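[job 4471] stage=fold_predict status=RUNNING
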Amino acid sequence: MALTLTHIRGAIYKNNIDQKTCIVHKIRATEETYKWLIEFFGGQENRNAYVHTWYRYTTIQCKKYIQSPVDLQFYPTDSYNVKGIAPSTEEEIDIRRQIFGTNCITIPQKSTLTLLKDEIIHPFNVFQILSIVLWTYDEYYIYGSCIALITIVSIIQTLLETKKNISKLVQVAEHVIPIQVYRLDTWIETTSEDLVPGDIFQPEQNMILPCDAHMLMGDVICNEAPLTGESVPVSKLCKTSTIQLAEEDKYTLFAGTKILRVRSVKKEPSKAQVIRTGFDTTKGELVRAMLFPQDTNFSFYRDSWYFLGGMSIIACLGFISTLIIYIQKGVPAGLIAVRALDLITIVIPPALPATMQIGTTFALARLRKRQIICISPPRVNISGKLDVMVFDKTGTLTEDGLDVLGVQPKGNISMLSDVSHYSTLITHALATCHSIKVVNGELLGDPLDLQMFKKTGWELDETEALGVVCTARPPNSEVDLDTLLAGGAQEVGIVKIFDFNTNLRRMSVLVKRPQDAQMEVFCKGAPEAVNSLCIASSSKCFTMLCRLTFD
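[job 4471] inference complete, writing C-alpha cells
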C-alpha cells in the first residue's frame, strides 16, 4: 500500500506537496493493542476511517512512524512518552515490542552489486565509459585502455573502502549485552535486544548502555566521550521532583556511553528506566545522521557545476561548428560523429574523473589509518575545501596541562603560591568547591578542578556518612572519636554539590565541618558572574583580576 507522506512539525501528513513517497505497512493488531494505542495518543478513536483490527506504520530512513487512531496522522515513535509506567503483563510487553520494535540499531547494508551499480552510474563514470567507447572506436587503444584501467581500479578501491567503513560502522552501532531487568515483580536476566520503553534494569560498572534511560535509584558516573566528545566523566543523579525538565540531562543515561562507576543507596541495587530504544536513542540519531547526511550546498560543488556547465557550452559550440564545417566539406557521417564527439572529450578533461576518484581513494585510506569512518566518499572533496573549523567546547582546544599559579587573597598585594600560607577558609574552598569523583581510586573531573584540589594536597573520600556526599581531609589524617567530638577535626564534608550551570556561569557547594552547627557555601565561576554576587567592598578583587588577565 503506497501513500505520499511528508514531515511537518513532527508528524507526517498525507498527500502533501513534498511528494516524499514511502510504503505504509498494515499489521493485524489485537483489541488490547488498539486500546493501548488510543490511550497512548490520549483521545477518542476515529471509527469512520480506522479499522480497529489493524494498525499502520511506516519507516523512513530507519525511523519508525505509527498512525494515530485519534487523528489518523503518522507520528515518530520517539515522540511517545510511556510516562514512567513499567509494563505490568507479558501481553503489554509484547505490545510495546510490537510498537517500538527491538532494541537494536540494525544498519541496512547494500550489497556489493548495488554499491558497484551506484558507482558505475555516477555521472563522471558514465562520461568516462562513453569516452572509452569513443576512443576505442577511433582506434585510440592505448590511451583508452589506460583510462579504462585507472577508472576500474579507482571504482574497485572506492567500493572496497566503502564496504570496510560500513562494516566498521555496523560493529560500532550493533551492541547486544546480557542485562538484569525487573519484570513482573522479579529480576530476570535477558538480552538488551529484549528491552522496551518502561522496563526497569540494573546499570552495572563498565557497562556500555544499550538504550536511553532515566536513573531511578542510586547515581552513576558515565563517560560520554563517544557521543559528545566530552573528555570529563559526567555524574548522573537519580530522578527527583526537584530537578526541572530543562535539567533532564542530569539524570538521563544515553545509549553508547560507558558507566565508570555505580553507587547504590541504602544497599539497594541501582535502577534505571528505559525511555528510548533502537534508532530513537541519542546514539541511534547519531547513526542516522551518518547514514543519511543532510544535503549540502557548498560553493565548491556549485563552482564545479558552473565549470562543467561552461565547458559543456564551449564543447557544444565546437560540436556544432565542427558539424557544419565537415558537412560542407562532404566528410562521411561516421567520421563527422567521431570527430565531433571527440571534441567534447577534449574540452572536458577525460582524466579529471579518474584523478578525482584516485585522490578520494587515497584520502579514505589515510582517514581509515586514523580510525575515521567515512561512508560517503564525495564528502571528502567537501572537507578538503574547509577553511575554518569551529569547536563549541573549551576543553576541545585547551590543554589538560593546566596548573595553579597561586591564590590572590582580598586586601593582599602579593600572590600566595605556597599552600602553607593559605588561610583555613581558602584551603577549604580549594578542597571542596569542585565536582571531582573517585573512580577505582583515581580522581576524575575537570582538569582545572583536579589541579586546584591537588594543590591543597588533601584527600577525597566519597563514603557517604552523617548526611554528606563526600569528605575532604588533609593527607594522612586519622581522626579519632575524641578529636571528632571535641570539634578539632580539620576535615570538611560536602553536603550538596550544585554543578556548573551554563546560564548562571558558576557552580557552588554546601559544606559542613564536623560538630559545627553552621554550614558554608563556596562558589566559583566566571569572574563577572561571581563579581555580581559580591559586596561592593570586594570590587577591587575584580579590578585586580582584570589586570592580571591582561598582563
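[job 4471] summary: The chain has 17 helices and 22 strands.
[job 4471] exit 0
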